[in-house]
Amino acid sequence: MRFPDNFIEDLKRQADIVRVVQDYVPLKKAGTNWRAPCPFHKETKPSFNVNPAKEMFFCFGCHKGGTVFNFIMEMERVTFPEAIKIVAEKAGVPLPRMIENDRFEARQRDSDQVIELNQWALAWWQDQLQSKAATSVRYYLKERGITEETSKTFCLGFAPDSWEALSTHLRQKGATQEQLEKSGLVVKKDEGGSYDRFRGRVIFPVFDVQGKPIAFGGRTLDPDGDPKYLNSPETPAYTKGRNLYGLNLTRDEIRRQGFAILVEGYLDLIVPYQHGVRNIVASLGTALTPEQVKLIVRFADKVLVNYDGDRAGVAAAKRAIETILAENIEVKVLVLPDNTDPDDFIRKHGVDEYNRRRTEAQPHIQFVIDQAVRDRNLNTPTDKAAAVEETLPFIRALPRGIQKREYFDIAMDGLRVQRDQRRELWQQVRGASTDRAAVQKVFVRTERPTVAEEKLLGLLVANDELRNIILPRLEPSDYDGLATAAIFRALKDLGTEKKEITYEALSEATADNGVAAEILPRILISEPAESFDESLTDANSCLDALRLMKLDREIDELTTQIAEADRAADTELRDRLVMKKLGLSKQRGNFLPPHGKAGN
Ligand SMILES: [Zn+2]
């Protein structure tokens, strides 16, 4: 879209910069200039100057300055063409036909019409809320803890339970049937005509950033009503996922604090707002879109995601985090206890407790890790692979390399990933894509059975007498975490049940285990050693090797935990872990030299 050449200069002249700025800043005359504390940086003395003769503003504190358009761009965080439109509107100058852009014009006209109808509808619904018929509705709002003042601030209304009351009102105001249908305020009937979309519902208007009503949400008052919230369809004035609820009221506070609290629903925003939490926006049900994040970026570079604590809320929060990270914004996450949302929580525990909880919000990566390890056992390679796979997209979403590495290390510490596996995963993070198979491979490959495992199993399977000696000495901790753990477990179980060790019995007991399926035939056909004594010596040294491997795994694990404690600057934990590692290293020393011992 392009404005004719002279228009911008003419508009600048016609728009009185003092009057436009005064909409935002309380200017006071001082000589030829007008002055106020600067809206763009924190100060109490007035360094912000507007000079009407030069049609300029300038701040001696933060050195921001320019024309009325620059002021609006900075204040409203809009592009130059949008700033022109806002200034024109404020100055009462009609916008010229844009050059080579008829379609945009037509859409703009449609959009303006829808907004006008929305304004009429909203004013009427607000009146209805004050009517006698709406006594129970006002009672409902009071029950939810919403004061009359808040109800006015958010322009809440009531749509009576009627098929045509609103349509009739809008027709009387001059709306045509075509306009009614375009506005989405009515639903078209197949046989022609239409009926009111919102009936018997509390109306929550959705405003754009400039405060124009672009859509509505209607909450049913019937406890069995379905859907609980009914929303406007898309119209020329409203595209889903392009707006954030509440931003028209909260953007200044968001700008001032440099961060925004992101919640899900209407009341999740309204209730905290009423209690003084004013740097808050709501994404309204649908998944957070990049456009919505870009809206936040205009005003803040930090976001606190505070969605519902239930499973759906957590899933939505995770999707939102991924979208936010891509815009280079710092994200923290607050999950309130007992699956509550901000609305419930504040009504139950008060706003002070809410604010206290906010200070304990987790960095996003910690939230992602917590979710990934929930219901999983990091000691099993498949679970660990799944947890890593779930976490990597959140690292990949980060736009900057340094950040990527930093969060990658935190995640790998949190998920207790060993060094060599990290190296491979890091290659994957930096590469084009991480597919499930690639992540699985990193963990499952280290799950190959070792020579000692396979040899010990072969000996145990081949010799009943040997089995009777070794099996009782074999602790679950000796084989847990090994590739062949399932086979050892099966041998133990079959031994306890005094069952015969056959290929069929072992296969059945290790069903679905890939490693077992692969090596069982090999173990069962292996040749037993010449003498029993030789077999026993071999079995003992294999068992030593297994225990040595276990100690190595534990030492590795401790090394990772020590690094984690270092990172968290938890010296007490670190010292405890170091002592533990020392103990294990000593134990490990007692096994050495393994060859000498095996030769005894
Ligand atoms: Zn300033």
Please, could you describe this protein's structure?
Helices cover 55% and strands 10% of the residues. It is of the alpha+beta class and 600 residues long. Strands 1-2-3-4-5 form a five-stranded antiparallel beta sheet. A five-stranded mixed beta sheet has the order 13-12-14-15-16, sandwiched between helices. Strands 6-9-10-11 form a four-stranded antiparallel beta sheet, with helices on one face. Strand 12 (259-263), helix 11 (266-274) and strand 13 (280-282) form a beta-alpha-beta unit. The termini are far apart. Residues 594-600 have low confidence and may be disordered. Zinc ion (ZN) binds next to loops.
Which key terms come to mind for this protein?
600 residues, alpha+beta, binds zinc ion, 16 strands, five-stranded antiparallel β-sheet, 10% strand
Ligand identities: zinc ion
Main pleated sheet: 5 strands, antiparallel
| Mean of pLDDT | 88
Low-confidence stretches: 594-600
Strand count: 16
Helix content: 55-70%
Give the CA-based shape. elongated
Q: Enumerate how many helices there are, as a single number.
A: 29
Strand content: 5-15%
